[in-house]
Amino acid sequence: VAEAKRLGMGVDMSTGTGWPPGGPEVSAEDATAQVILKTYTLEGGARLEKPLRAGDNERGPAEHLRALMAYSESGEVVDLAGNVDADGNLDWVAPAGTWKLYAVFQGLGGKKVERAAPGGVGYIIDPFSNEALDNYLERFDKAFADYKGEQPRAHYHDSYEYGRATWTDDLFEQFRRRRGYDLREQLPALFGEGDEDVVARVKCDYRETIADLHLESYIGPWVEWCHGKGSVTRNQAHGSPSNLLDVYAAADIPETEIF
């Protein structure tokens, strides 16, 4: 970096190896997450006989139950998460009528760093989580704590390629705070069932929440971190589930690419 400066050049680097940011130090808890839905139908007087399980998917385990809601044909909604024990058994007898149960699991997204340098393969980080980003950047802070030399001119974020990143740990809480209602009470609409207008509105609110989190909990803090190191930022925002103009505007140098 110092030699480049002497020659009147700048050195730009991705924040890590390959893209998107990630590596072997990224835990499953900080990695991308996907939402997995399981539904069950019970008639009055019946109970669920088998434990709630999402099962494994081709990208990893999906055993984190985030919500279990029951909806009756007459419009009643019951939160059953507190009725599930550690083994996934549901202690609940359906009241009269037909009930549909929605079990929402958080599964591992499983996407790994692309074109990683030797030793750099690992999970990519959750693009909606400030905690995951902080944990990832902490490694750089520690490694360069005593470094006093020149910094890269810019840190670079390649195009948004986070695979099946559709969820994050605190999405229900973030949704309630930002949109003003409980998404758990609208799970049928979230997954495309029911009145078309309600489905469209709920999906729009979900997408807006994801967009907010990517910009405010991930891209924005990354830019601030880079500025704190004396570097500017370059970002290819295309592909991200956000308002592209907002994400481009957050970077010092907005970029695109042409094939």
UniProtKB/TrEMBL annotation:
This is Uncharacterized protein. It comes from marine sediment metagenome.
